[in-house]
DNA sequence: CACCTCCCTAAGCGCTTGCTCACCTCGGGG
DNA sequence: CCCCGAGGTGAGCAAGCGCTTAGGGAGGTG
C-alpha cells in the first residue's frame, strides 16, 4: 500500500495531471509485464481514461517509454555524479555512490526496472541518446575508482572491469528487489556499499 | 562468426532435427528482441520452415520458451552443484562455482539471457517449476559461503545477502556480455571469481 | 450569449498476432 | 502396387493490436 505512492514524486513536474497519471500507469504496467506485453488500453485503463486519451498527451506508446527512460537515466546519473563530486576520500565517495544508487534502484524498483531492462524497446534515436547517458554513468563510477587506485586506497588489477562489475551489481537490484521482502532499501544500500569497497580492494576501515 | 554455433551442443539431444532448429532459432530471437516481441513467424522463418510447422513440434510458443528455460536452468544448476560438491577449500569451491557459472553465462549469453530475463513470460505452472530451480541455485551457492564462514576462511556479516549479491553479479553477465567485446568468457570468469572471494571477505590467497 | 480552446470519448480502421485446417509429399512395409 | 503415417505447406480465422477520426461537453473570454 502506498509503497509505490512515493513514485508520484519522481513525476511531479509532469503536467497536466492526466499526463502524469498516464506516465505512472505506464511505469507500473511496463515494470510488471514488460513493454511489449503492455497494451495502450491497459495503460489508459490504469490511468482511468479511454484508450484514445493517451494520444492527446503522447504521440506513441514508444514516446511514453522514452520519457520514462530518459527521466530515469538522468535521475540515476545525477545521483552518481553528486557522489563523485562530493568531498571525502575515494572510499567515502564510492560508498556514498553505491549506497544512494542502490537505494534508488530499490525504492523505485518499478521505474528502475523499466529504465534498466526495457531500453531495447526504444526507437533507434532514443536508444542512442540513452546509451550515451549510460556511458556517462559508467564514467562517473570509474572516476571514483581511478581516484582510489591513484591514491593507493584501492587495489584492483582491472579498473574498467571492476567498475563494470560494481555497476552491474547495483543495476541488478532492480530485477530482484521486492517491496514485500524483508530487506529495506536502506539495508540493501548499506550492504552493497560494503561489498563494493571489498570489490575494489579497499584495505582500510 | 559461429561463436554461437557451439550452442548446438546445448540442444544436441533435442530430436528430430527440425525441433532442434526451431529451439535454437527461438533462443536467438527471444534473446535479441524478447519473448513478447518475437513472432512465431520469425522463429519458423529462422529455422527455414513455414509458420505452421512450428506447431507440429511444439504446442504453443510458450512451450518453446519453457523448454529453453527448463533446460537452461538445469544446466546452470548442475554447474553450481558440481562446484559445491567438489573437493577443496571453500575458497576453491566458491572460486570454481563463480568461474564456471560466469563462463557459461558469457559463452551462452543468448541462452542465458532468455533463461534469466524472460521467465516472467512463462505460464503459471511452468513459472512455479522454474522458481523452484532458482531456489536450489541459491541454496547451492549459500552452502559454499556457509562452509567458508564456518571454517573461518570467509568473513561476511550477512550470508544470505552476500550470496544473493554474488549470484546477482554473475547472472547480470548475461545482460551486458557482448561476443564482439574485448573480454573473453574465460577472462570474465577469472575476474569475477576474484571479485566473489573479495565479497565474502576471503583473507588468504 | 456566441465562441473558442482544451480534454476527452465512442467507434472503428488496417494490420499483425498465435494458431488451425485441409491438403500435399514421400520413404517403407505388406 | 497401394497404402500409411510422419512431417511439411498455403491459406486463412478470430482476436487483439497501435493508432485515428469525428464529435461532444465544460469552462473561460469577448
Automatic annotation (TrEMBL), chains A, B:
**DNA-binding region residue numbers:** 39-58
InterPro entries on file: Homeodomain-like_sf (IPR009057), HTH-type_TetR-like_transc_reg (IPR050109), HTH_TetR (IPR001647), KstR2_TetR_C (IPR041490), Tet_transcr_reg_TetR-rel_C_sf (IPR036271)
Query: Has keyword DNA-binding?
Result: yes
Entries under Pfam families matching the protein: TetR_C_24, TetR_N
Q: What is this protein called?
A: TetR family transcriptional regulator
| Alphabetical UniProt keywords | DNA-binding
Ranges where the HTH tetR-type domain occurs: 16-76
Amino acid at each position: 500500500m502506498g509503497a509505490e505512492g512515493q513514485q508520484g514524486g519522481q513525476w511531479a513536474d509532469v503536467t497536466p495531471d492526466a499526463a502524469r497519471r498516464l506516465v505512472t500507469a505506464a511505469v507500473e504496467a511496463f515494470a510488471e509485464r514488460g513493454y511489449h506485453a503492455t497494451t495502450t488500453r491497459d495503460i489508459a485503463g490504469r490511468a482511468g481514461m479511454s484508450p484514445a486519451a493517451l494520444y492527446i498527451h503522447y504521440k506513441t506508446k514508444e514516446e511514453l517509454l522514452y520519457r520514462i527512460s530518459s527521466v530515469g537515466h538522468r535521475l540515476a546519473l545525477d545521483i552518481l555524479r553528486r557522489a563523485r563530486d562530493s568531498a571525502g576520500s575515494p572510499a567515502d565517495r564510492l560508498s556514498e555512490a553505491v549506497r544512494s544508487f542502490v537505494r534508488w534502484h530499490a525504492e523505485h524498483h518499478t521505474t528502475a526496472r523499466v529504465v534498466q531492462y526495457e531500453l531495447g524497446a526504444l526507437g533507434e534515436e532514443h536508444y542512442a541518446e540513452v546509451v550515451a547517458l549510460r556511458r556517462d554513468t559508467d564514467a562517473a563510477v570509474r572516476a571514483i575508482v581511478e581516484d582510489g587506485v591513484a591514491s593507493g586506497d584501492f587495489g584492483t588489477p582491472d579498473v574498467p572491469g571492476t567498475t563494470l562489475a560494481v555497476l552491474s551489481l547495483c543495476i541488478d537490484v532492480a530485477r530482484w528487489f521486492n517491496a514485500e521482502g524483508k530487506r529495506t532499501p536502506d539495508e540493501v544500500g548499506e550492504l552493497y556499499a560494503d561489498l563494493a569497497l571489498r570489490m575494489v580492494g579497499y584495505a582500510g576501515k
